[in-house]
Each structure stands twice: as C-alpha cells, then as structure tokens.
Design a protein that fits this description.
443 residues; TIM Barrel; three-stranded antiparallel beta sheet; 13 strands; globular
C-alpha cells in the first residue's frame, strides 16, 4: 500500500478549505490551489533539515511536522520474518500525514545487539539499520536516531558500566557512564561508527544523508546521583561538541524529558512532581549547550502524576506544553514534543480521554506555529502496524483499530501542511493574504 503525501493532503484539505473543524462545521478557510503547490513541494530536492531561529526549514521553507516513535524498527529489520513490518510502518505513516519517525540506533550487548561489545558490531544488525533508513527515504519519512538509552532496555548506560567493570574500570553506579573516561570513550566510538557508517542499501554515509533529521544524544538522560545537574551538563557539552566535530550539518538534540532544574527554580512549579527536580536534568541549562539545535520534551502524566486518568492530567498537559513553548522561544530554538501518549492500561482509560490529550498537544503546536512560535512538531508514542500486539506497551496506536486517533492525526497533519505550504508560497502571495490563511486554520 503506497500513498504519496501529495495525494493525502489534497484530499484531506478539502473540508478544511470549505471551513470544517473537527466536527465538520464551518470556519471559512480560504480556498487555495493545493494540488499544484503541493506537487511542487513533493518534487523539491531531498535535502537536510535546517533551522532558522525557532523554525525548522527544508529547502528554505518552514518545516512543521507530525510524527511518531517506533523504537524497535532495527530489531525487526534484522529478522526476515519481521522485516516486512518495518516497511509496513513507513507505508502506513504517510496515510495520516506523518513525516518524521524517531527510533533507536543502539542495542548494546542484548539480544540481537547492534554493538555486541565496545566497538564490536554485528554487521547483520547494522545492515538492518541501513534498511530502516532506506525504507524511510522511500516513503519520504525523515528519522531521528537516538544513540544510547538511559534505561537498561536495549543495554543503555547500564551495559556500558558492565563493560567498564569487565575492563577493570573503577565504576559502580550506572551514572558513572557520564563521568568515567573509558565509558565516555566507548560512547564516542559508537557515535563515530554510526555517523560514519555507509548505508549498504543507498551507499550514502549517515552523516551525509538528508533522510536523517537529527541525532539524539540519549533517550531520556537522567543522573540522579547529582541533583545539581553538573555531571550531566558536562557530558552533554563534551558529546555535543564531539558529534558536531564529525557531523556539523545535521540537527542535534539531547533527548530530555523536559524537567526543570536548579538553574530555573522559578519554573520547577511546572514539573509533574518534586522528584523531577532531583534527577540531574535541567531543561533550560541543558539546551543552552553549544551544538544543541532544538529542545525535546516528553509528556507522560500517567507515569509522572498518577496512573488513573483525570482532568488533572489535562491541566498538566496544558501547563507543560505552554511553559516549554515559552522557554524554547526565549532560548531561540524549536521545541519538539518527542514522546507523548496515554496508556490503555491506565485505570479509567477511555478513548475520549486519549483523543482529548492528542488534540491538546496538536492544538498547542498549531497555535504556536501559525504565530511563528517555537513549537515545531510532535512524535506520538508509538505507531504500530497490525500483527505487532506483542510490542504494545499500552501506548501503541494501530491505525486500523483506532479510527478516532487516525482522524485526529490526519487532520493535524493537514493543518501543519497548510502552514508549511502557505509559508512556502511567500513568493506568490503577499504577506496579508498568507497571514489571513494561517489565521483561519481552526484548532
């Protein structure tokens, strides 16, 4: 099943342009010639994502996006019996306008490991990652590749510490990952290996491939042994400089959850709980490191506040979104809400509540984007194709089984495409007409 984004948006924008909102009631969005304009965009060169202030750009035009996480793609691609599911994910995503995928470029010392021991790689698994990147490109999907995990899943910093112990290093805590010279070298070697990898399917070096949207230093870094945040800050500074020394062209992010720390004590009121202030991360300080191009934020009210769904969750969503959009704007960088979702396992779960959280995230991004704010995109956790129920952690969205979420995703994608397209047509439209169009996008 192959769909081009041009076809998807052209069909989906029709109700928007005759003035429909989520319930298909009027809003008077002016008619625009979508087919011609979007076809031209689709034919543009496949170039790297750049940045201009708080906006991402592609070919000189703003790039706001709707995207998803599917972390297990490399592992599935490594087995011929499951490889087809990788292709299926990338074929499904454009049907609802999803254009960016975040996934793992690590699996350290575990089952079907990429890095079986420090600087030793399984070539079959590396070719599986090559396949993931090549399939993404075939379907016009850009990928954010995360380089290590804070958690023990897929190895992470715990595996690095174990390797360090085996090598005779004086390490005991998982947080020694951030400070031990040997472990820092192990991580740098992994970075160098991945960035310099030549894709066996495309013959393009990763650091030169526009399919890669950005590198992520670590998935959800925390350093609880140092609530001051100094240890993690030093690691970010060192590793950001190292990544940029190899690849100065791609975007780079830290991978933070977004917790406020000691540098902005006046903002800790927005944290979900008091513990969040003690995990060694600092949203503002960490993102002010030279070489970090955009901010990342995760949203898990059911994990951070209470497992039972309630209006308190929605209140938190709203304040969390707005505070980070504001602070990223002050720092002069885009912000991506790179993980969010609601688990079907939560007490009191219902589809209406999940729909409400998705709508809140998307509304905040649209409102920011159409006014030139810092919110640049979001990545839901997680998109799964049919037949992968065993990978469902409760947050999975299977489009065929989630019609309301599918509709919400498609509508948000269409709205973002209007913004991207209206801005791309600045040479044809005078500013007043373009701004009038953006003002009429219903949220």
């Amino acid at each position: 099943m192959e769909f081009k984004l041009v076809m998807f948006v052209s069909v989906l924008l029709l109700p928007l342009m005759i003035g429909a909102d989520d319930d298909h009631r009027g809003n008077n969005v002016p008619a625009i010639q979508t087919d011609q304009g979007l076809s031209e965009l689709d034919d543009e060169p496949w170039t790297m994502v750049g940045k201009n202030g708080v906006q991402f750009t592609v070919n000189g035009s703003p790039f706001y996006f709707n995207g998803f996480n599917t972390y297990w793609l490399m592992v599935f691609a490594a087995d011929q019996s499951t490889r087809g599911k990788v292709s299926e994910v990338f074929q499904l995503a454009p049907t609802v306008g999803l254009t960016v995928c975040r996934t793992w470029a690590f699996n350290d010392g575990q089952w079907r490991a990429l890095q079986t021991s420090p600087s030793v790689y399984d070539e079959n698994v590396f070719q599986a990652l090559d396949f993931v990147v090549s399939e993404a490109k075939k379907n016009k999907i850009r990928v954010i590749l995360s380089l290590v995990n804070n958690w023990s899943d897929y190895g992470g910093k715990q595996q690095y510490v174990k390797w360090g112990k085996d090598a005779g290093c004086n390490v005991s805590s998982d947080d020694d990952f951030f400070t031990d010279p040997t472990l820092r070298t192990y991580y740098k070697n992994h970075v160098k290996t991945v960035l310099n990898r030549v894709n066996t399917y495309t013959n393009v070096t990763y650091k030169d491939d526009p399919t890669i949207f950005a590198w992520e230093l670590m998935n959800e870094p925390r350093c609880t042994s140092d609530p001051s945040g100094d240890k993690l800050q030093g690691w970010i500074q060192e590793m950001a400089a190292y990544v940029k020394s190899i690849d100065p062209n791609h975007m780079l992010e830290v991978g933070l959850e977004g917790f406020y720390g000691p540098s902005t004590s006046n903002r800790t009121q927005f944290n979900p709980n008091s513990y969040a202030t003690q995990v060694g991360t600092d949203f503002v300080r960490n993102h002010q490191v030279l070489g970090i191009d955009f901010a990342s934020v995760h949203i898990y009210a059911d994990s951070w506040i209470s497992p039972a769904v309630s209006n308190t969750h929605l209140e938190f969503y709203n304040s969390w979104l707005q505070s980070h959009i504001e602070d990223a704007g002050k720092m002069g960088m885009p912000v991506v809400f790179s993980e969010f979702g609601v688990s079907t396992k939560d007490p009191g779960y219902n589809t209406s509540f999940r729909d409400a959280t998705y709508k809140m995230v998307f509304k905040s991004i649209i409102e920011s984007a159409r006014s030139g704010g810092s919110a640049a995109g979001s990545l839901m956790w997680q998109l799964c194709p049919d037949g992968t129920d065993y990978m469902n952690d409760g947050y999975a969205v299977v489009l065929s089984k989630s019609p309301s979420i599918s509709d919400i995703l498609a509508l948000n994608s269409a709205r973002l495409q209007i913004i991207n397209t209206a801005c791309a047509w600045r040479c044809r439209w005078n500013c007043r007409k373009r701004l009038h169009t953006l003002d009429q996008i219903d949220t």
